[in-house]
Specification:
This protein has strands spanning 3-7, 10-13, 18-25, 33-39, 46-51, 58-60, 68-73, 78-83, 92-99, 113-116, 120-125. The protein is mostly beta strands. It starts with a strand and ends with a strand.
């Protein structure tokens, strides 16, 4: 069992930065791929970024590549999403998820997640 709690969301101007954190409970955190998804109002949940269990592999959606960085600290049971050069279209609720499927360099699907956090709101003003 893994419980996930996101934090770090807020209101920021376009071009600004935020760092999201996702704190996990449970001794098996380090065995999971971790994934960030987001969901904007009226839209489906979409993949943002993923990182493998050891932190040695990452994959990003094209829309955030070069602006967002996913990382993890297994000693702290935490995964991060550093978001730079934010745009109004980045506005969404951001969710972290734990995924126990094998690693691949493609977007993850929400149905593959085993555990979800409650989400944190990110609002980017123009």
């Amino acid at each position: 069992q893994v419980q996930l709690v996101e934090s770090g969301g807020g209101l920021v101007q376009a071009g600004g930065s935020l760092r999201l954190s996702c704190a996990a409970s449970g001794r098996t955190f380090s065995s999971y791929n971790m994934v960030w998804f987001r969901q904007a109002p009226g839209k489906e949940r979409e993949f943002v970024a993923s990182i493998n269990w050891s932190g040695t592999r990452t994959y990003y959606a094209d829309s955030v590549k070069g602006r967002f960085t996913i990382s993890r600290d297994n000693a702290k049971n935490t995964v991060y999403l550093q978001m730079n050069s934010l745009k109004p279209e980045d506005t969404a609720v951001y969710y972290c998820a734990a995924d126990n499927t094998g690693w691949r360099n493609t977007p993850r699907y929400s149905y593959e997640a085993d555990y979800w956090g409650q989400g944190t709101q990110v609002t980017v003003s123009s």
